[in-house]
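Hi P.,

Sorry for the delay on this. The queue was packed all week, but I finally got your sequence through. Input first:
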Amino acid sequence: GISPMSFPGTRNAMNLVTGNERDEWGRVSTEPVNRVRMMDKRSRKIETITPDLPKGMEWGDPDAPTGVIVTGILGGVVAEAVQRLERKGLKFHCHRPRTLWPVLADTLEFIRKHERVLVIEQSEGAQLAALLKSEGACSDHIISILRYDGLQFSAGEITEILESGEQQA
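Then the structure:
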């Protein structure tokens, strides 16, 4: 289901970048029938590859009522914070999706398993939380923890946030 495509710089080939739809041979097309066919083709590509996309990584106590979702480098920061809190007897279950879109079933199942899920993001708009909600995650379970001042969360800050949240629960 992958159409041939020449890459920029290929000798005796042309690669046009437009905002228009193309047919399976790379020719620009404004035909609605072609548009539908190509959109359906892209959907099939996503369906085909989804089972092979990397699942999330998990750590902590799977029976903890509070889940934490984090991406990227924040995973290490949260892991350190959770280790600190485990020494105090507080339990958390963490999930770090390695595929953000399409949202995989393991991420949605992680959210379903917990009474509440803290989504920690370096984002003003809570994009990850919004994406999860748009894909069917229960909005009532998700609490956004945001930082967008350009600085990285520290393990100490995450420890305080998680500990204060548990004491309020």
